[in-house]
């Protein structure tokens, strides 16, 4: 029964206190709407402010990359350790358990492979991303490349479509073979992504990385790149976080590591707890020995 008496005269709880209004923890995201913030807060840990994304989308342009031949065996056991997974819709539907609960950064642009010319890409339907419950839409952006205009149009279109449904966009900077991987180029490419609406930018490490993060108004996640010795990869991640990155989006340096489960945990220690590389490497070796 509804309590009609209470409508006439009831105790008033806390009406003398101003309503709490909290700022959002993530750089450049305070003015986004609720759905966007909810998705970003599932990708980035609200305590550390950072994320460890596990990238295994390589097959869309490279085919069965080393370590990804049998993703059901190599990737699925890693998913529980990742804050977010970055993959294609093909991988999602074929090997990722829908029960995993890990947010998805969906590879949203594609078009060419390493056999022809990279970056001549197009986009999938936004309804497909909604059906797959994507938390982030990943689009390649090739600043200075022959397909620069196409990829920036793809980014802009993705931001427009994602905004309709509250799904943020990740601008992935593709550095062409002829481009210098220096702070001048990387900061320009990252800033171009942000100015065109990307909510997060994925880019490569370089000297003076602080110049890249400090001039980009949205969070930057570090792209892993080719496989390095484990200590070097942990050092690169540490330096990136120390210089203002909000996480890593790492593939080969995790799934091609001597022990991928130990490696992703060591990367997490660096990214979330700011563990120094040498200690994280000790942790890697300890976990590796335990898992033998
Ligand atoms: C990069 O543009 C693609 O998304 C890659 O397939 C992937 O993210 C690369 O990961 P990693 O370089 O760490 O292996």
General description of the model:
- With 292 residues, the chain is an alpha/beta fold.
- It has one domain (29-290): TIM Barrel (Alpha-Beta Barrel), CATH 3.20.20.70.
- Helix content is 41%, strand content 14%.
- The chain has 14 helices and 10 strands.
- It has helices at residues 4-8, 34-43, 59-62, 71-74, 76-79, 89-94, 126-131, 148-165, 183-195, 209-214, 230-242, 252-255, 260-273, 277-290; strands at 51-55, 84-87, 104-107, 109-110, 122-123, 136-141, 169-173, 200-203, 220-223, 247-250.
- Helix 11 packs parallel to helix 13 (260-273), helix 11 crosses helix 14 (277-290) and helix 13 runs antiparallel to helix 14 (277-290).
- The model has no long low-confidence stretch (mean pLDDT 94).
- Bound molecules: ribose-5-phosphate.
- Ribose-5-phosphate binds next to strand 10 and helix 12.
- Ribose-5-phosphate binds at residues 55, 57-58, 86, 172, 223-225, 249-253.
Summarize the structure.
The protein is α/β, with parallel strands linked by helices and 292 residues long.
């Amino acid at each position: 029964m509804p309590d009609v008496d209470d409508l006439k005269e009831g105790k008033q709880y806390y009406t003398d206190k101003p309503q709490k209004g909290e700022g959002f923890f993530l750089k450049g995201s305070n003015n986004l709407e609720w759905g966007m913030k909810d998705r970003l807060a599932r990708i980035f840990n609200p305590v550390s402010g950072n994320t460890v994304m596990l990238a295994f989308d390589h097959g869309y342009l490279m085919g069965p990359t080393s370590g990804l031949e049998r993703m059901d065996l190599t990737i699925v056991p890693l998913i529980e350790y990742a804050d977010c997974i970055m993959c294609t819709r093909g991988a999602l539907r074929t090997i990722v358990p829908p029960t995993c609960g890990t947010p998805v950064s969906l590879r949203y642009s594609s078009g060419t492979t390493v056999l022809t010319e990279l970056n001549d890409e197009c986009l999938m339907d936004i309804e497909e991303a909604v059906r797959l419950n994507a938390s982030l839409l990943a689009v390649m952006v090739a600043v200075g490349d022959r397909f620069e205009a196409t990829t920036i149009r793809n980014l802009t279109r993705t931001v427009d479509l994602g905004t309709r449904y509250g799904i943020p966009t990740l601008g992935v900077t593709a550095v062409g073979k002829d481009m210098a991987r220096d702070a001048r180029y990387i900061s320009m490419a990252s800033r171009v992504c942000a100015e065109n609406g990307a909510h997060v930018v994925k880019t490569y490490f370089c000297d003076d990385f602080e110049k890249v993060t400090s001039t980009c108004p949205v969070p930057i996640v570090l792209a892993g790149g080719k496989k390095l010795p484990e200590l070097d990869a942990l050092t690169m991640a540490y330096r990136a976080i120390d210089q203002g990155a909000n996480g890593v989006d790492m593939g080969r340096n995790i799934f091609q590591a001597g022990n991928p489960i130990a490696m992703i945990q060591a990367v997490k220690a660096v990214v979330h707890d700011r563990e120094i590389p040498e200690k994280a490497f000790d942790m890697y070796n300890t976990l590796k020995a335990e898992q033998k």
